[in-house]
Design brief:
alpha/beta, Rossmann fold, five-stranded parallel beta sheet, about 40% helix, globular, disordered N terminus
């Protein structure tokens, strides 16, 4: 996919965040987890906010930032969140402060979002320092097979995920929306292309010091769990 001039200059300078989008079951988490493992200290996940109560074992500020609904709605109105959604009556969202915390630690922030989340980031100031990659399945049949092979999904959930996937795939028709689209037909080939793309968008300010060396010498920065 060709990049426009303004975006190419931005990429060379190095982005602070990378948005990874794709249908459920396409392999997003597999690619991201491998990237983080192979380049320790280079990448981090932002900690999402939520208005639901903490579950057993969850730690505030580590698993989520637990907050009150009124406070979070006010902060959303004030533009403090780059994306948010209501799920089963509770609010979830990613704040600009959470992303900046990762960036200030010298890491590139990785965000696995749905298409609506990516669209929200496009409307935020963070867009100017963000790259977007879409991970696509080879075809609908292959995606369905991957979902069924998990053995953890009910038929209702599988059909719901396939319906959602079709809507997400429509975003591939949006000219200039994505910096890179990868078809995950072969995991090794896809990861190689993904890693190459990440190295490129990290730019000179990070790729030389971080990716080329395998990560900072002092790797005491814990990669935090992704949000909802």
């Amino acid at each position: 996919m060709e990049e426009q001039g303004a975006k190419r200059r931005r990429v060379e300078d190095g982005v602070d965040a990378v948005i990874i989008v794709g249908p459920s079951g396409v392999g997003k988490s597999t690619l991201v987890d491998r990237l983080v493992a192979e380049h320790p200290g280079c990448f981090g996940y932002s900690v999402s906010h939520t208005t639901r109560g903490p579950r057993e074992g969850e730690v505030d500020g580590v698993d989520y930032h637990f907050t009150e609904a009124d406070k979070m709605r006010l902060e959303i109105e004030q533009g403090s969140f780059i994306e948010h959604a209501e799920v089963h009556g509770s609010l979830y969202g990613t704040s600009i402060a959470a992303v900046d915390k990762v960036v200030d630690a010298g890491q590139t922030c990785l965000l696995i979002l749905d298409v609506q989340g990516a669209e929200s980031v496009k409307k935020h100031a963070l867009d100017a320092r963000t790259a977007y990659v879409f991970i696509s399945p080879p075809n609908d049949k292959e995606l369905e097979q991957r979902l069924r092979s998990r053995g953890t999904e009910t038929e209702e959930k599988i059909q719901r995920r396939l319906t959602t996937a079709k809507k997400e795939m429509e975003y591939l028709q949006r000219q200039g929306f994505w910096d890179r689209v990868l078809v995950n037909n072969d995991l090794e080939e896809t990861y190689s292309a993904f890693n190459e793309f990440i190295e490129k968008v990290c730019g000179r300010k990070r790729s030389v010091a971080c990716l080329a060396s395998g990560g900072p010498q002092e790797d005491n920065l814990k990669a935090l769990p992704a949000g909802a």
